[in-house]
UniProtKB/TrEMBL annotation:
<dbReference type="InterPro" id="IPR001579">
    <property type="entry name" value="Glyco_hydro_18_chit_AS"/>
</dbReference>
<keyword id="KW-0458">Lysosome</keyword>
<comment type="similarity">
    <text>Belongs to the glycosyl hydrolase 18 family.</text>
</comment>
<dbReference type="InterPro" id="IPR011583">
    <property type="entry name" value="Chitinase_II/V-like_cat"/>
</dbReference>
<dbReference type="InterPro" id="IPR017853">
    <property type="entry name" value="GH"/>
</dbReference>
<dbReference type="GO" id="GO:0009313">
    <property type="term" value="P:oligosaccharide catabolic process"/>
</dbReference>
<dbReference type="GO" id="GO:0006032">
    <property type="term" value="P:chitin catabolic process"/>
</dbReference>
<feature type="signal peptide">
    <location>
        <begin position="1"/>
        <end position="31"/>
    </location>
</feature>
<dbReference type="InterPro" id="IPR047898">
    <property type="entry name" value="DIAC_cat"/>
</dbReference>
<comment type="function">
    <text>Involved in the degradation of asparagine-linked glycoproteins. Hydrolyze of N-acetyl-beta-D-glucosamine (1-4)N-acetylglucosamine chitobiose core from the reducing end of the bond, it requires prior cleavage by glycosylasparaginase.</text>
</comment>
<dbReference type="GO" id="GO:0008061">
    <property type="term" value="F:chitin binding"/>
</dbReference>
<dbReference type="GO" id="GO:0005764">
    <property type="term" value="C:lysosome"/>
</dbReference>
<dbReference type="InterPro" id="IPR029070">
    <property type="entry name" value="Chitinase_insertion_sf"/>
</dbReference>
<keyword id="KW-0325">Glycoprotein</keyword>
<keyword id="KW-0378">Hydrolase</keyword>
<dbReference type="InterPro" id="IPR001223">
    <property type="entry name" value="Glyco_hydro18_cat"/>
</dbReference>
<keyword id="KW-0326">Glycosidase</keyword>
Length: 372
């Protein structure tokens, strides 16, 4: 850094902003536009009335998404210029995934250099911003606590300055109550970025009560999380509701007649029981199995979630909890009534996009549930 910038050491200590500007100038050139129409390489501007935020993890299933709804795609798979051009043709943003070890960004120079690399990459790939997905343990008032808030603010400032109209978002747990030991400065982070994507799933990551299978995203528990965020003076328009397009398959130690599936105690970040006792299953896979299960689709009225039970080839009983159009539409209705900024899912690839009539109906119903 010293050889490149001469007074780089002084810049990093005295004025991180000057260092960031210098780094951005060094790598400010964009690559050749990959789109047939150069206009499609321009950043998407404006704020949609209702955000529909889609995480995409790769492959080409994006070709079958409901683009009449999508406003943002967070590209968590390999860079796909075809996806970028198509999304821009539909007026949808495509944003980078941002992740960095929190301990590395305590140093302001490291933070500045990381931000510069992300801005440079976004420019080269004609992206519209970044989704910061840092799901690491952080202790309240620790150096990491303050560094993470600073990272979000500085990233937002840099992107907004260098890519007009760009979007910077941050992923948070379903509740601000130090879930999985993620004790972040949630109100400060919300103020610093465009909005928070609330991951209202994996809500059994830490179970402190009876170790039994439960819904991935129970209705009342999910809504309590939003009430808690809003009670921290975070505006509803700063929150996008994330819903799961996958479920959990649990092998039961015992399955009672009243559908209680007992689980082994598998701890996670201090909790004695967790959803680590199960395995994640996509909605597309679930729909291929549910009708041949021993129970068929069942509905838990308390959690407002579907589930089913089956016996595997070794004779073990399993219970599968998931979300479907019925459970998702209930949450989407709440998102609208509560004035949230929008809705999204992890992840868009989880549906069955084959051309069979049954799969098409199931897939259309899941997309439709986002806007009941």
């Amino acid at each position: 850094m010293k050889r490149l910038l001469g007074g780089g050491a002084c810049l990093s200590r005295c004025c991180p902003l000057l260092l960031l500007l210098a780094l951005l100038r060094l790598g400010s050139s964009s690559g050749a536009c990959p789109c047939g129409d150069p206009a499609l390489c321009r950043p998407i501007a404006g704020t949609p009335e209702f955000e529909v935020f889609v995480f995409d993890v790769g492959r080409k299933t994006w070709k079958f998404y409901d683009w009449s709804q999508i406003t943002t795609v967070a590209a968590f798979g390999k860079y796909d210029p075809e996806l970028l051009c198509y999304a821009h043709s539909k007026g949808a943003r495509v944003v980078l995934k941002g992740d960095v070890p929190v301990k590395e960004i305590i140093d302001s120079a490291n933070r500045t250099a990381w931000i510069a690399r992300q801005v440079d990459l976004a420019k080269k790939q004609y992206m519209d911003g970044i989704n910061i997905d840092i799901e690491q343990e952080v202790i309240v008032m620790s150096p990491e606590y303050y560094a993470l808030t600073a990272l979000v603010k500085e990233t937002t400032d840099a992107f907004h300055r260098e890519i007009p109209g760009s979007q910077v978002t941050f992923d948070v747990a379903w509740s601000p109550a130090c879930i999985d030991k993620r004790c972040y400065n949630y109100s400060g982070i919300a103020d610093a970025c465009d909005f928070l994507f609330v991951m209202s799933y994996d809500e059994q990551s830490q179970v402190w009560t009876e170790c039994i299978a439960r819904a991935n995203a129970p209705y009342n528990q999910t809504l309590d999380g939003y009430d808690d965020y809003i009670s921290m003076s975070i505006e509803p328009k700063k929150l996008v509701m994330g819903v799961p397009w996958y479920g959990y398959d649990y092998r039961c130690l015992d399955l009672s007649k009243d559908h209680v599936c007992s689980l082994p105690n598998i701890s996670f970040r201090g909790a004695p029981c967790s959803d680590a006792a199960g395995r994640q299953v996509t909605y597309g896979t679930i729909m291929k199995q549910v009708n041949s299960s021993i129970s068929g689709s069942l509905w838990d009225e308390e959690q407002k979630a579907p589930y089913y039970e089956y016996k595997d080839s070794l004779g073990h009983f399993h219970q599968v909890w998931y979300d479907n159009p019925q459970s998702i539409s209930l949450k989407a209705t709440y998102a609208k009534k509560r004035g949230l900024r929008g809705i999204g899912m992890w992840n868009g690839n989880c549906l069955d996009y084959s051309r069979s009539s049954v799969a098409e109906q199931q897939t259309e119903a899941m997309w439709r549930a986002l806007r009941p």
